[in-house]
Design a protein that fits this description.
Elements (H helix, E strand, L loop, with lengths): L5 H4 L5 E3 L2 E3 L19 E6 L2 E8 L2 E4 L11 E7 L2 E6 L7 E6 L9 E2 L6 E7 L5 E8 L2 E8 L6 E2 L14 E6 L6 E5 L7 E5 L13 E2 L7 E8 L8 E7 L7 E5 L8 E2 L7 E5 L5 E6 L7 E6 L11 E4 L7 E6 L7 E8 L5 E6 L7 E2 L8 E6 L5 E8 L2 E8 L8 E2 L11 E6 L5 E6 L2 E6 L5 E4 L12 E8 L5 E8 L10 H5 L11 E6 L7 E2 L13 E6 L5 E6 L2 E8 L2 E8 L11 E8 L5 E8 L4 E8 L9 E3 L8 E5 L5 E8 L2 E3 L3 E10 L9 E5 L4 E8 L4 E4 L4 E4 L8 E10 L3 E3 L2 E5 L11 E3 L2 E4 L8 E8 L3 E2 L5 E9 L5 E9 L7 E5 L3 E2 L2 E7 L4 E8 L5 E13 L11 E9 L2 E5 L2 E2 L4 E7 L6 E6 L10 E2 L6 E6 ...
Parallel strand pairs: 52-62, 64-72, 74-82
Antiparallel strand pairs: 1-2, 3-28, 3-50, 4-5, 4-27, 6-7, 7-8, 8-9, 10-11, 11-12, 12-13, 14-15, 15-16, 16-17, 18-19, 19-20, 20-21, 22-23, 23-24, 24-25, 26-27, 28-29, 30-31, 31-32, 32-33, 34-35, 35-36, 36-37, 38-39, 39-40, 40-41, 42-43, 43-44, 44-45, 46-47, 47-48, 48-49, 51-53, 53-58, 54-57, ...
């Protein structure tokens, strides 16, 4: 007896609707149009479902790969053809790999794994001859199309989208084969952020890079074309696709166009919301997803153009009101009628860590992938790269970490509770700097070293003034400055005591459920300075359940759950101020919202994710609402619409650092310089940390200096890099410039790079280049220039002279004669002293002839006789046999001449013998040691005074007892300045007060 293949077994599920063979399917919400800006990371949460491939039999959902055949896997994105089935699965790697199952496969045979990499692979499509599979994959930060043979060989890229100003992070997705297998149609955001359709051969036109695809749709600004499906019949000459409209994001349409893109599009399902079209082999019937009945969608079928009869209007195949099935596909077993299979969200996990894209809820993933274990309370590390969560193991629970990119093979254990005591470690949360972790064990908040696991402290019981016959603490969270920990606390009130068994609650799923809890705040260094933040709101008749407090990332707002609502309170310095208020959550049409809990701030503090009960089945999903500015309306959207309960969302911290580099000038001659300015910008939602920007210069450009333009930046010339010790605020910049010397002729490409500690969601803009052209100097190139320095700057009256030094250089290749230097110096204020290197006639001196490359140095001393500040300069002129100087930009140089007048003051300026007056000075040379002495009378032993870095000092001056009376002067002497005297000090005789009177009686 011939064995029946696994795919053939699906034949029993066929249901005939108006003569069309289909099976029960349900569709999820159509994907939103691609965003122009990078997605703001992901949102992790606790769910109780996983994706599987399924078909329908007598109205019931049947898994294609039953769980009893092996461990639970996550299978999705199926695509079928006459030769078999391709799909994505996490059975070997939870990032998702491509698998192939032939139509005649043995029921017990395992599918063939086609990809083995660290990338995220999606949307496979089997070629018409069954020999190749096209798919999209995120590799090296770029989403592009790849093709591989069904035996796993000949893997190669087909497209290479390049970032550009219109699309900083372009993505090529959702390929579909032409009927003859010579072309692929796909959707891309390379020229339209909402997506348009392109056609390309399945092989690159050149080995590297792949060829440029042909764009066949040009959508208006607010529209997009995505999810193409090429009609498998050549004569039909059409491609179906999903049309989106950002003005009505919840409404999509299925249209068709010719493969050339010429002509107007045709609506295949008029007046219907539709997406994710897929053709049967005859090109006569579409299966598609529609939200016509409910927002979670259902799968419908429609006969197109009434070819061969069928349904003139779409007919519902299956809709169970809630399950988010997706990506229906037609399957063609060799000996049975065609079938439809789909991705189904199955409920069979007691709790698992999942995540979705924060922008639109797409890309739902199972991160922890531990069937049969209860997992809860995910939290991201501050850099967004790891997730810590609580894992139930038999009678205890520990805290473990996994990689946030779904690549962890085995969780890393952070805490080790005692199984003998049934200890349960829950509610982990990282400190803002990532060095510590707070969590709850047996109702107590414990803070540990996040690296070593060493316990640092435990939050102590409530203060003695609080009734504390017992207490329960939970749900901790850190303030963004790391100075406070906020948490929920239940304290047992005075008698009569409620019927609360604290020990029993210690081992409950959530010990705080149903108790009158308050939000508390403690010092994050040791758990001291305990404050009951919300307890004042409690009344004798109103019980407040204040839970899950969270401080906004900008530190300005406290958010928590109170009695099924979300509550806001402004903060100043971690202290509440003003009046509490409820977060406005807009009512949803035909959907009752209740039981809002587990709020989570977006990194920019402008949105909040939370869990909420809704729908006819009263299950929980994750929603997002904006926190609008005063006078604005909040916006509401769903992140999950899955079967089962979704809870405990947490937002991934991410950044988007962009770097640019510009050269000024971009074209220079040999032996001249250009200035390269590097600008790193934080385009992300929140502050970026440990930001470092660097510049790489190719050989031929020599760095001379590096200068930061951003306050707080530290630069290193050896590495040509600058970094910030503190965070780089959203929209903030780190700017520095490098002066580079053109050593040799050529065309060079300096490259700038920026890095940070927080996960970057758009890595292609982390590097940028510019072009610098260095030209050879002409044989008779004529250029005499001058450079100028002044030293010291400043000088001090009576001290060292100011030396103005001019260096005149023949930078050209032609001999210069009659070289003359003309100076502009403040000689009317500061007397000209020693001159070296030249004889002046007035303000000019003749240097004479200079051979190419020769230099002459001239120095002029200016005596520091008076206080002065001005700009000095020097200008050089020369004669050449071939003509005039060809580079006038370096003919003049400037320098600063500054002479300070030190000032000495005594206060008070009068006193008797034995008196100590205060002596102070300003504008003295920093670091110099000076002596103070009276010009008359008795001088105490000299006590040297050192000038502060800002040029000031304070000292004491003593007038000895029995010293002579009259005026005297205090003088200051030291290096680098002349003697400075204070105003006269008058020594007066001591006075005596009359004796006090004694009253009578």
């Amino acid at each position: 007896m011939r064995r029946t293949s696994r795919l053939s077994r699906v034949a029993a599920a066929t249901v005939l609707l108006a003569g069309v063979p289909v099976v029960a399917v349900v569709g999820n919400a159509a994907p939103a149009a691609a965003a122009a800006a990078p997605a703001p990371g992901r949102v992790a949460y606790v769910g109780d479902h996983h994706d599987e491939l399924a078909y329908a039999l007598d109205g019931a959902k049947i898994p294609l790969f039953p769980a009893d055949a092996g461990p639970t896997t996550v299978d999705y994105d199926p695509a079928g053809a006459a030769q078999g089935l391709v799909f994505v699965s996490t059975r070997d790697d939870r990032r998702g790999e491509i698998y192939y199952l032939p139509a005649d496969a043995d029921p017990a045979a395992a599918p063939t794994r086609l990809t083995r990499d660290t990338a995220v692979d999606r949307h496979p499509a089997l070629s018409p001859d069954g020999s190749r599979v096209a798919f999209d994959s995120v590799r090296n930060g770029v989403t592009q199309l790849w093709v591989v043979n069904v035996d796993g060989s000949n893997l190669h890229p087909v497209t290479q989208p390049t970032p550009n100003p219109t699309a900083p992070n372009p993505a090529d997705t959702w390929p579909s084969w032409s009927p003859d297998g010579t072309r692929l149609v796909f959707s891309s955001t390379r020229q339209n952020a909402n997506g348009d359709l392109y056609v390309t051969p399945p092989l690159p036109t050149t080995p590297a890079p792949p060829g440029t695809p042909t764009r066949i749709t040009t959508s208006p600004t607010n529209r997009g074309a995505i999810q193409p499906a090429w009609d498998p019949v050549v004569d039909h000459n059409r491609i179906a696709f999903t049309s989106t409209n950002t003005a009505t994001p919840n409404v999509t349409s299925v249209l068709s166009i010719p493969p050339t893109g010429a002509g107007a599009a045709t609506s295949l399902v008029p007046r219907w919301d539709a997406s994710q079209p897929t053709w049967n082999a005859e090109g006569t019937t579409l299966a598609f997803v529609s939200r016509r009945i409910n927002r979670d969608g259902g799968v419908y079928v429609k006969t197109i153009d009434d070819v061969g009869g069928g349904s003139p209007e779409p007919e519902l195949v299956y809709d169970d009101n809630r399950n988010p099935e997706a990506h229906p596909t037609w399957l063609y077993p060799s000996d049975t009628p065609p079938q439809v299979i789909f991705t189904h969200a199955a409920v069979d996990e007691p709790g698992e860590i999942r995540d979705v894209q924060a922008s639109d809820g797409s890309g739902d993933r199972d991160l922890s992938f531990r069937p049969g274990q209860f997992e809860s309370a995910p939290t991201y590390s501050p850099d967004g790269r790891k997730i810590a969560y609580s894992r139930r193991v038999r009678n205890y629970a520990d805290i473990v970490t996994i990689n946030a990119d779904a690549t962890s093979a085995t969780p890393t254990v952070l805490t080790r509770p005692d199984p003998r005591k049934s200890e349960k470690d829950v509610d982990p949360v990282y400190s803002p700097d990532g060095t510590k972790l707070a969590f709850v064990r047996s109702n107590r908040i414990i803070v540990i070293n996040a690296t070593t696991g060493a316990e640092l402290f435990r939050v102590p019981p409530p203060p003695p003034t609080t009734p504390n016959n017992g207490f329960l603490d939970g749900e901790p969270s850190w303030s963004p400055d790391g100075k406070r920990i906020v948490f929920a606390r239940y304290t047992v009130p005075p008698p009569p005591l409620p019927d609360v068994d604290l020990r029993a609650r210690a081992f409950a799923a959530n010990p705080l459920d149903g108790l009158d809890t308050d939000v508390w705040s403690v010092r994050a260094s040791d758990g001291g300075d305990q404050v009951n933040v919300t307890g004042a709101d409690d009344t004798a008749t109103q019980t407040q359940f204040d839970r899950t407090p969270r401080v906004a990332p900008d530190g300005r707002t406290l958010l928590w759950n109170r009695n099924g609502r979300l509550r806001l309170w402004d903060l100043v310095g971690n202290q509440p101020t003003g009046t509490q208020r409820d977060l406005t959550v807009p009512a949803q049409p035909d959907d009752q919202l209740s039981g809002l809990q587990y709020p989570a701030w977006a990194p920019d503090a402008k949105s909040v994710a939370f869990s909420v009960i809704h729908g006819p089945s009263n299950t929980r999903d994750i929603a997002v609402v904006t926190v609008p500015a005063p006078g604005a309306e909040p916006a509401f959207r769903w992140l999950t619409t899955s079967v089962g309960d979704e809870n405990q969302p947490v937002w991934q911290p991410t950044s988007d650092l962009e770097v640019t580099v510009a050269a000024n000038p971009a074209a220079i001659n040999v032996n001249t310089t250009t200035t390269l300015t590097v600008t790193a910008t934080n385009l992300g939602q929140a502050a970026a940390r440990k930001v470092r920007a660097s510049l790489s210069l190719p050989s031929g450009l020599i760095p001379l200096s590096i200068t930061p333009a951003t306050t707080g930046a530290t630069c290193t010339q050896a590495t040509l890099s600058c970094h910030l010790a503190g965070p780089l605020a959203a929209e903030g910049t780190l700017v520095f410039s490098v002066v580079a010397f053109g050593q040799a002729a050529g065309t060079y490409t300096p490259t700038a790079t920026v890095t940070g500690s927080i996960l970057d969601v758009a890595s292609p803009n982390n590097q940028a280049s510019t072009t610098v052209t260095v030209s050879s100097i002409e044989v008779d190139f004529r250029d005499v220039g001058v450079a100028m320095t002044t030293s010291p700057t400043p000088s001090y009256t009576g001290g060292d002279p100011v030396i103005a030094t001019y260096t005149v250089t023949n930078r050209g290749r032609a001999r210069a004669s009659g070289v003359t230097l003309r100076t502009v110096l403040p000689t009317s204020v500061l007397r000209r002293g020693t001159v070296r290197g030249c004889t002046f006639a007035g303000d000019s001196c003749e240097i004479g002839a200079l051979a190419p490359g020769a230099s002459k140095q001239v120095s002029v001393a200016l005596d520091a006789t008076a206080k002065h500040s001005s700009t000095a300069s020097g200008t050089v002129t020369a004669r050449f046999a071939q003509g005039a100087d060809q580079n006038r930009g370096n003919d003049t140089a400037t320098g600063q001449v500054k002479v300070l007048q030190p000032t000495l003051t005594v206060n008070p300026a009068i006193g008797p013998p034995g008196f100590v007056t205060r002596a102070s000075g300003v504008d003295f040379p920093p670091g110099v040691t000076l002596n103070l002495a009276w010009d008359g009378g008795i001088n105490p032993p000299a006590r040297p005074v050192v000038i502060r870095p800002n040029g000031t000092f304070d000292a004491q001056a003593l007038v000895f007892n029995r010293d002579r009376l009259g005026n005297r002067l205090l003088a200051a002497n030291g290096l680098r300045f002349g003697t400075v005297q204070a105003q006269p000090f008058l020594v007066v005789a001591k006075t005596f007060s009359p004796p006090g009177f004694t009253s009578r009686g």
